[in-house]
Design a protein that fits this description.
By secondary structure, the chain is mainly alpha-helical. It has helices spanning 16-31, 35-49, 69-81, 96-123, 130-149, 151-154, 157-183, and strands at 2-5, 10-13, 53-54, 62-63. The termini are far apart.
């Protein structure tokens, strides 16, 4: 059994040889950390704490709703502590280009979530655990909440996204019925 002190980064254990090997492997991994690693960590933090909508199809530039500005401030401080920088630009409300760009980014981000839900539902088979199906239903509910929360950003796109969520929930019910019949 090995233990990692997350604060100091030190590995300890009962077998000195194994402890040394683990410490060397950890030190090597830490030494080769790069920007992609930091990006993945930041994206996971946003997934758990706030919403981040890509502006470019391939990422690299994101819109974070104003509701999450204090979280973005914390991420900014973390990036600076790693000797990086986070370029931030305000998007003024009420400007035609700004409003349109925000609407497109948020709509596209939520539409992508709905596509992910539909894709997951299509992959459900006889071996899909009930918990996985429950989690899919919860993801659809969370996405519905996002649509409501960001209604001001979505404008006319809100009704289309709501309709797409109704379709996703219907497909999930249909898939559950098929799986239940097949299991009987």
């Amino acid at each position: 059994m090995l233990t990692l002190d997350k604060v100091s980064g030190k590995v300890s254990g009962d077998l000195p040889g194994l402890e040394t090997l683990a410490q060397e492997a950890l030190d090597e991994c830490i030494a080769v950390r790069n920007g992609s690693d930091v990006t993945r960590v930041i994206q996971r933090l946003f997934e758990r704490n706030a919403d981040l909508f890509p502006i470019r199809e391939h990422g690299g530039c994101y819109f974070a709703p104003a509701e999450h500005s204090s979280f973005v401030d914390r991420i900014d401080r973390m990036v600076k502590s790693l000797n990086g920088n986070l370029r931030r630009f305000p998007v003024p409300k009420g400007t035609p280009h700004g409003d349109r760009s925000v609407c497109e980014a948020v709509t596209s981000g939520i539409a992508s979530l709905i596509e992910d839900h539909l894709h997951a539902i299509e992959t459900f088979g006889g071996d899909t655990r009930p918990h996985t199906i429950e989690r899919a239903a919860e993801h659809i509910r969370q996405t519905r909440f996002k649509v409501e929360s960001y209604a001001a950003y979505l404008g006319e796109e809100k009704s289309r996204l709501e309709s797409d969520l109704v379709t996703a929930a219907g497909r999930l019910r249909e898939r559950m019925e098929v799986l239940t019949r097949e299991a009987s």
